[in-house]
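batch_manifest entry 22 of 60
target: TetR/AcrR family transcriptional regulator
source organism: Variovorax dokdonensis
requested by: lab member K.T.
priority: normal
notes from requester: please return tokens only, no post-processing; we will run our own comparison against the previous entry in this batch. if the run fails, retry once and flag.
--- input ---
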Amino acid sequence: MPSSKLEERKQRELAKRRKDILKVVRKMIARSGARDITMRKVAEESGFSNTVVYALFGDKATMITTALDDDLIRLHKLMMDAASGGKTALERIRLVCRAHVRNGLQHPDVYFLLFMEPRPAPPIETSTLTFGDPQHDPYAFVCDLIAQLAKEGHVAGDQMQQALMTQMIWEGVHGMTSLRIASGDDPWIERLDAEAHLELLLDVLLLGVVQRFPGPRSADAIKLLSKSARAAGVGSRN
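--- output ---
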């Protein structure tokens, strides 16, 4: 058999081993969490040797992150599809945040694994995602939307300030999603339904960001967002 054919066969076998091991890792995370996973346990449960597992993934953080990367890729596509329906940066941010929260509430187990299960941070260079690339990285995609908001004049700030805006938006929608997943219909908390709550949350987050980091056209954004908030009942005493 020619060497090229042997190499192709070898690569197919390695790819199948990786796929089989990652399937086991996902099951183990869902069953007992990421903290209890070890390379040795994965080797035992997958039927491969420790040597094979280490050769394919190198360390626990890389292995766990790789197991979840496909879900992040799907989330990124969902966010990009949502953004395509917006004409302005404000509209695109709102659409993307809606998609993020709705997806999390519709798929709580996957969301928990991605964003709520404690796990070791992987080296950037070992991720299958392209770090910092809006076309591949969900968080970088939101960063890019904030940059578009600044370009349209609704906010102003240097790179660090735009990063802070991104974090505030991301933390806000994640906070709502994770609390809804974790507490469910908690009778101790009086809540609006998720859709109405989300719209109010986005109004408050965006109004806060626009007013805290005002740009030359921030007044236009504030007027638009305030009108939306009043229509939804923000600040109502009734």
